[in-house]
Design goal:
Layout: E1 17-25, H1 32-45, E2 50-54, H2 62-65, E3 75-76, E4 79-80, E5 83-85, E6 88-92, H3 99-103, H4 107-119, E7 126-132, H5 139-147, E8 152-157, H6 161-176, E9 181-187, E10 191-192, E11 198-199, H7 206-213, E12 218-222, H8 226-234, H9 238-241, H10 246-257
Parallel strand pairs: 1-7, 1-8, 2-6, 2-7, 8-9, 9-12
Antiparallel strand pairs: 3-4, 5-6, 10-11
Helix pairs in contact: 1-10, 4-5
Bound molecules: adenosine-5'-diphosphate.
Amino acid sequence: HHEGEHTCCSEKPLKNVKNIIAVASGKGGVGKSTFAVNLAVSLAGTGAKVGLIDADLYGPSIPTMFGLLDAKPEVVNKNLVPLEKYGVKLMSIGFLVDTDTAVVWRGPMASSAIKQFINEVDWNELDYLIFDMPPGTGDIQITLVQTLPLTGAVIVTTPQDVALADVSKAVSMFRKVNVPILGLVENMSYYELPDGTKDYIFGHHGGENFARTHGLEFLGSIPIDREVREDGDNGTPYVLGHSGSATSIAVNRAAMEV
Ligand code: ADP
């Protein structure tokens, strides 16, 4: 027996993962999962080994966004084998129970599900493991940011004041536990009209201004785009089919910062 050479259970979880990134938001519905999916696919496109954990237990959308609604992970040696698509290894509560079941879980059950995603899934070696966090700053989020060896967090928001109010709380949560915030992405920044002018539906530059006043790196603006929504619903991540659009440029830029 040599110290440090055993491969069983006492090993540090995720020790072969180089970067663990939380994608977080203040509110739900701002595009956090959409961004997390496209970030993961973009990183995989650079040749990196990437995993994505759907930690949004009460609203898992990764199965839909990857077109894997009926997929079930295999169990090998008591560990779950992540599903894999578009070069990304995936785990979601949506692969394990039907969504209506997870909705009624209380805190401890939700926490233990996420611990299982960390300790009992064969992630093997990864360059990046992305956590699609639940929105906001509830108990699950706090447990996660305290227990995971996070490299950093990326925050997604819309420019709207009601969304930004909750982003402040998320920023405080990460800072309290000394998790670096790698930057802020503004989603649904504007809608481009057929004549090329921009309609700032949710307010003008709210995310960018927030980033500046809170000392956060601004990673870019993603417009409201029917194709982003359709690609999410169809399970074909947007960045795969749209190089060079404003959205893909913003996502790829964020991928370079994480
Ligand atoms: P969250 O993870 O913050 O709850 P989602 O990523 O699930 O948000 O996005 C909520 C809805 O908005 C989804 O239907 C998604 O397809 C859509 N959506 C997200 N970003 C955009 C965008 N930039 N343009 C159009 N629709 C978007």
